[in-house]
Write a structure and sequence with these properties.
Strand order of the largest sheet: 14-13-12-11-7-10-9-8-15
Bound molecules: nicotinamide-adenine-dinucleotide
CATH class of the largest domain: Alpha Beta
Helix content: 25-40%
Shape: globular
Number of strands: 15
Number of domains: 2
Structural class: alpha/beta
Number of helices: 12
Largest sheet: 9 strands, mixed
Strand content: 15-25%
Length: 386
Amino acid sequence: MAKIGIGILGGGGILGAHAPSYQKVSRLCQVVAVAEPDTSRHERIRQLLGPQVQLYQDYREVIALEAVAAVDIVLPHYLHLPATVAAARAGKPVLVEKVMGRNVYECDRMIEACAKAGVSLTVCHDRRYDSQWMALKEVVDSGVLGEIFYWKLEHNQNVVFPPESWVRSRDGLGGGAVMSCLTHQIDALRWYGGEFESVTCMTRVIPERMEGETIGVIAARMQSGALANLSINWFTRSHRAGPDALWYEVVQVCGRQGEAYFMSGRGTFVLLHEPADRRAVRKYGAEALERFVRVPAGTWGGHERCIGEWVKSLGGKRAQLLTDGREVRGTVEVAEAAYRSAESGRTVKLPIKPRPWRNSSKSKLGPAQPKQSALADYVVGAGGRS
Ligand SMILES: NC(=O)c1ccc[n+]([C@@H]2O[C@H](COP(=O)([O-])OP(=O)(O)OC[C@H]3O[C@@H](n4cnc5c(N)ncnc54)[C@H](O)[C@@H]3O)[C@@H](O)[C@H]2O)c1
């Protein structure tokens, strides 16, 4: 059977996670071309994907190739919408890196374009496919924790980009750290604990780092009644500070009958409260009543699994895809609601009414998205839920 031809749009940092993932399913697919205007990155791309890979300057050239049956979008966030619309118009299924779009309005345009063209739209939210994060999901879904009262999710990094980087631009990123990366935590929480009811958010801009916020905290009430505490700090070195360092990411869940957590670098653990669910004691051992015990987990990474499943789905095989565009739009909606809360100083209830992205007057990014006339085919009704 002929291999599925993949085109990758963008050849920057995250290609380092995508390229080996395609190699693991190389019996089914081949990356035939990459679009990357920065020629200083071409040597690395050849090293990652092999000397046969064809290199182009712009994503539109790769979408147009006949040998490309599907595209993987690893572009700056402000290009996710126009690249998805262009791929859909060419009839090519799309895998797009998180964050899906800069706001929920852009997500809706992406969903409409793909639906109209009859092609699939999958978002690479890798945490949902990671073996350790999946182990925590299994604990939560088994019900052994009882009624869940509280969630805590954190993301810690030291993020410094050069002055010309799109990441420094609010228009490039779709805001700041919350939209860019706290969406990992928001997406995971929606997967673990259901939909958000309301959010209250505060953000802190550190202007020498970037236009958008570097630090953000969200207090949320979930539809289940649980409370959640989510935070991102892009101004900390705590997770890389020697043997007593703190964590990069943590997810903690606390229920009436037990608790569990995932911590990066450590694993996934469960603790049972007395009186405990008997099935849980049999499963995790009586010691789980005294201390956190490790939950068995696989060893695969999220990108590897997500890309593997996506490629299987392209080949018409049964695949476990968890992150269709229609599902993931809700993650962007929560982040956008958090921004509206931070701006207004009020709690914001979900759902929110989508609004088009407006580039700031000082934006240096040029026309980031297709003109409204070019998008008109894909705009239905008032643009989504009110
Ligand atoms: N899942 C994760 O943990 C994770 C981590 C990092 C990045 N990401 C995501 O991956 C995506 C890319 O991020 P990155 O860190 O690789 O960024 P990056 O800036 O390193 O790479 C983006 C590349 O796109 C190229 N590009 C710009 N305009 C282009 C055009 N018109 N045609 C073709 N290429 C063009 C740039 O030259 C750049 O090399 C983003 O959505 C980001 O959020 C995800």
